[in-house]
Design a protein that fits this description.
The protein is built from 3 helices and 9 strands; from the N terminus they run ααβαββββββββ.
C-alpha cells in the first residue's frame, strides 16, 4: 500500500469540517449572507435574540454568547466560505450557524435545523 499524501489528507480533513457537512434548512425566499456580507452585518449590528440572549462578535475573532441573565459562553469564531459562522468555545464545544435574510428579517439557522429570528 503506498504512503498517504499529507497534502491530500489535510485537504480531506478540511472538507470534512462542520460547515461543509451542514445541510442548511434554507426555505424559499431566504438568502444566506456572503462571508463579506456577514462580516459587515456583525460589525454594524447587535445580534439579539427573542429569548433575551445575544451574540457578541469581536474584538478580532473573540466570541461570546451572553444569556439573558448575563452568564457568558466564550470562544473564538471564524466565517466559512459558505457564509456560515463557526464558534469554538473554550469549554471544547463547537458549532456552526448560518444567518439568512428573509425579507426584512434575519434568522439564524443551526446545523440541527432550528431557527432563531433576530430582534
Amino acid at each position: 500500500m503506498p504512503p498517504l499524501n499529507p497534502k491530500l489528507c489535510a485537504a480531506m480533513i478540511c472538507l470534512a469540517g462542520p460547515s461543509m457537512a451542514a445541510d442548511w434548512a434554507i426555505r424559499s425566499g431566504e438568502v444566506p449572507f456572503t462571508p463579506d456580507g456577514l462580516r459587515d452585518f456583525i460589525a454594524a449590528n447587535e445580534v439579539r435574540f427573542y429569548d433575551g440572549g445575544r451574540s457578541v462578535y469581536g474584538p478580532g475573532t473573540a466570541y461570546a454568547y451572553v444569556y439573558s441573565n448575563d452568564d457568558r459562553a466564550e470562544g473564538v469564531y471564524r466565517i466559512e466560505a459558505d457564509g456560515s459562522v463557526c464558534v469554538d468555545f473554550i469549554n471544547g464545544f463547537s458549532r456552526c450557524d448560518l444567518y439568512v435574510r428573509s425579507g426584512d428579517r434575519v434568522i439564524l439557522l443551526d446545523e440541527k435545523g432550528d431557527r432563531y429570528p433576530l430582534r
